[in-house]
Amino acid sequence: MGVYTYEDEVTCSIPPAKMFKAAILDSDNLIPKIMPQAIKCVEILQGEGGPGTIKKIHFGEGPIHIASKFKSMTHRVDAIDKENFTISYTVINGDVLTSGIESISHELKVVASGDGGCIYKKTSKYHTKDDAQVCEEHIKGGKEEGLALFKAIEAYVSAHPDEY
C-alpha cells in the first residue's frame, strides 16, 4: 500500500471561529443550501457529528467536476477539536474511491492570519492498494472543487455576518 500526501491552503477574510463553524460544523446544512449543484444533501448514517460519525454525501448534478463524475461518498469523522478549529475525516466508501484508491484521509485546520481573517489548511493522504498510482487529474479536480466550495462559504458568511 502506498500513501500520497498533498497539502493545500487558502486565505480568507473571515475570522477562524466563524469560518470553522460555517465550513466544518454547519457544512452539512450550508453547502447544499449555497451550492446544491455540488452537494445535494448529507445523510448521517451513524453518530451525532463527533468522532465515529459516518456521513454519506450525495453529490449534485451540476457542472462541478466531482458532481458530474461521481454520485456519492461516505466518510467517517476521525477527530474534531472545536477549540483549535481542526477536524480529520476519512473517505471510506463511494465512487470517488477510483480504482486503486483504498481511502482518502483529510486533516483540516483553520488558523488565524495576521489581518483578522484565517488560513484554511488541508492535508490529504491518498491510501492506495498495492502499488497503484494516484491520478494527478483526480488531485487537481479535488483541489479546485474544494477551493470553489471554500470561496462560496466565504462569500455566504461575508454576506450574512450575523448568521455565524
- Main β-sheet, in a few words? 7 strands, antiparallel
Mean of pLDDT: 91
What assembly state would you assign to the polypeptide chains in this entry?
single chain
Structural class: alpha+beta
Principal-axis shape equals globular
Strands ordered across the widest β-sheet? 1-7-6-5-4-3-2
Helical coverage, percent range: 25-40%
Topology order in helix (H) and strand (E) letters: EHHEEHEEEEH
Instruction: Please state the CA-atom Rg, rounded to the nearest Å.
Output: 15 Å
Q: Hey, roughly how much beta strand do the residues contain? A: 35-45%
- How many DSSP E strands? 7
Alpha plus pi helix count: 4
Task: State the distance separating the first and last CA atoms.
Answer: 41 Å
Descriptive tags:
7 strands; seven-stranded antiparallel sheet; 164 residues; alpha+beta
Please give the structural blueprint.
Blueprint: E1 2-12, H1 16-25, H2 27-34, E2 39-46, E3 54-59, H3 65-69, E4 72-81, E5 86-94, E6 101-112, E7 118-128, H4 136-159
Antiparallel strand pairs: 1-7, 2-3, 3-4, 4-5, 5-6, 6-7
Characterize this entry briefly.
The protein is α+β, with helices and mostly antiparallel strands and 164 residues long.
Describe the protein's architecture and organization.
It is a single chain. By secondary structure, the protein is an alpha+beta fold. It has helices at 16-25, 27-34, 65-69, 136-159, and strands spanning 2-12, 39-46, 54-59, 72-81, 86-94, 101-112, 118-128. A 7-stranded antiparallel β-sheet has the order 1-7-6-5-4-3-2.
